[in-house]
Amino acid sequence: MTTHRIRVGIDVGGTFTDAVAVDATTLDLLGQVKVPTSHHHEDGVAHGIVAALDRLLEQTGHAPEDVAFLAHGTTQATNALLEGDVATVGLLGIGTGAGAAFTRRLASLAKLELTPGKRLPLTYAHVADPEDRAAVEKAVDQVVLRGAQVLVATQPFSVDRPEGEEAVREVAAGRGLPMTAAHDITSLYGLQKRSRTAVVNAAILPKMFATADLVDASITKAGVTAPLMVMRCDGGVMSLDEMRRRPLLTVLSGPAAGVAGALMRERVSEGVFLETGGTSTDISVVRRGKVAVRHATLLGKSSYLSALDVRTVGVGGGSMVRVGGGKVTGVGPRSAHIAGLPYACFAAAQDLVGARLATVRPLPEDTDDHVVLDAAGGRYAITLTCAANALGRVPEGDFARADRDVARAALTPLAVALGTDVDTAATQVLDAGVAQVRSVVDAMIDDYRLDKDTVLLVGGGGGAASVTPHLAATTGHEGRIAAHSEVISPIGVALALVREQVERIIPGAGQEDILAVRSEAERAVVAQGAVADAVEVEVTVDPQTNTVRAVATGATELRTQDRAHRADDTERLRLAAESLKVPENRVDVLAGTPAYTVYGTELRRRLRGVRHPVRVVDADGVVRLHAQDARVDTTTVGSAQQTLAALVDKATAYGDGGVRAPAMRLLIGSRIADLSGVLDPQPLLALARTELEGRPGDEPVVAIVEERS
Q: Which residues fall within 8 angstroms of residue 510, CB to CB, at 6 or more apart?
């Protein structure tokens, strides 16, 4: 059974706007279009978004009312910061006594550098008593007279006592001024960092407001009734209203869209995603089915913006080759695009007749060692993509596929100059380019303690084939190029889940505190359109920083894929065995629910003793969970409370470092409830009870428990 309902993802890039339509039931790609990004249109990028949507609906034969989900990702906030195109911020510091001294120092945020030589436009005024409305109005008048277009209010400990910042908001609303209250951005302590993050958020508010209103009006005019969502920098989406409040969450959302596509479309559970364009490769991690997120650096300073941990290497499909002393000395960071040259491998065979090797400076400040070909058809760049095609690394039908004979002809003059054959020359080029990527990949695998035996390398972007296949070959890791890799970002936008993160610093947090944070995150995603029954919440309690963090994700509709696409028992067993790195006859089925099957084996190592690794495979044949050494128990909702209490009691560790409850995950219905972030046994069991509430007593529950070292 199929459906006429579609999910639409639109990725607004610096040059092009890409849009895709995905079947809402099967998640199959139905169509894709590319239009120029309309920066200079009177409606801005909104015009390009609607143009892409119109072409997409026409191509796929769908009507606007068939759109079940519509989301877009944009580089607008990122570009505004990179280009220094921001509003003047009026910062109002609140407080008396010692608090006043701290807030007055925030005037120094005017020294933040947006671009070389251009600082953040900011003016400061102080409010001693926010209950004195006349004083607040006077401070607002002061900053407006100095050119402020948007306000920020900040006060020490406003995460606990927001009344002062709210008093400023009331005055700002009366003046029609957009405003960010520092406590809106985060509930974490740290006046300087919280205020800095709020100021950057406010600086892009007016521009993002205007775009949001234009896009919203344009989509409504086009007849789409599905609510418009916007891509976040942590791999989820948020409502348009939430974007108006916190536009900063869209910064760095481009790389997040790509990894969201890999996570949802390729269903990666443990691996590294490499999105390769023409000039660079963005590298990010998926660990246990979740993207790796950390607080981002903005304008050279740490912030409270939780964003995808993405590390960029200046190597892409168009990276030019550098030579010296009869050998390849490097690849990139300059690309053929910067030099204004076509790739040699995409030339016609006759255009390469009489090709001679030469070296150039792509930009005046560059060294004169970048290799080009002067041939009958003009000047061409030898790129990483040329080398990959010459070695046959680019699969049939790939976006970067070129005629292999032409690619080899392009590499021939370089091979002669190096005193070797074409295969060796191409290998040297790929080795030089991929070595830079490999060093970052190795570091991220170590940083996130990925299981090196099961790490999967997934390539996305138009230049994926120039990096990922050779990286896989040189590292020994399994590697593949994502289906439709050239549009993996808009696919990620189309498939992304609504996401919200709530953080609180709560010294000695008890189970009521933890449950309250969890509930707040769950309510936030439901308020933005997620179906309550589809929401999953992961809670982490960090005893070192006293931080309680809840990350809630949910779909805007209950998605049930066509059963014809499901994997059978034989296929799921094979996939589990491959992931466990053992023969199928050594794999046991340990437990199961209608949505998941749990597989395990026993490994005996001389130094590591006996381990019981576990894999959870879903009905589509995707390994959703890796556990290195776990115990698996099956119970029911009605009996779970007693069973889980016994499991936790048996696996809890006691020592000088305190109490450490086991890492526990529950399989319930179609959900995996990840409770591994909680170290205290009582809050852990309280969260487990919350996950089970309202479910039938005879419903099966599978507990996967890992003792902590």
A: 683
pLDDT at 564: 41
674 and 551 in contact (C-beta within 8 Å)? no
Q: Where are the beta strands (DSSP E) in 38-155?
A: 67-74, 89-94, 113-115, 118-119, 122-127, 150-154
Contact 377, 351 (CB under 8 A): yes
Residue 662 is given by DSSP the state P
Locus of tokens 């790490």 = 455
SS3 assignment for 510-542: CHHHHHHHHHHHHHHHHHCCCCHHHCEEEEEEE
- Burial label, 42 (beta-carbon count in 10 A; 0-12, 13-18, 19+): exposed
Could you tell me which residues are beta bridge partners of residue 335?
319
- How far apart CA 354 and CA 356 sit, in angstroms, is 6
pLDDT exceeds cutoff 60 at 182: yes
> Which of the 8 DSSP states describes residue 504?
E
**Total-model pTM:** 0.80
Rounded distance between C-alpha atoms, residue 277 and residue 271, angstroms? 20
Task: Report in angstroms the alpha-carbon separations of 189 from 116, 161, 254, 304, 504.
Answer: 31, 12, 29, 10, 8
CA 601 distance to own-chain centroid: 33
User: What is the rounded CA–CA span in Å between residue 416 and residue 241?
Assistant: 61
pLDDT score at 562: 42
User: Smallest Cα–Cα separation from 8: which of 51, 41, 53?
Assistant: 53
Determine the Cα–Cα distance for residues 140 and 144; give it in Å rounded to an integer.
Answer: 6
pLDDT at res. 394: 92
Cβ distance 687 to 675 under 8 Å?
yes
Mean pLDDT of the chain: 88
Residues 302/392, Cβ–Cβ less than 8 Å: no
Given pLDDT bands bounded at 50, 70 and 90, which one contains residue 246? confident
pLDDT of 139 over the 80 cut: yes
pLDDT of residue 419: 93
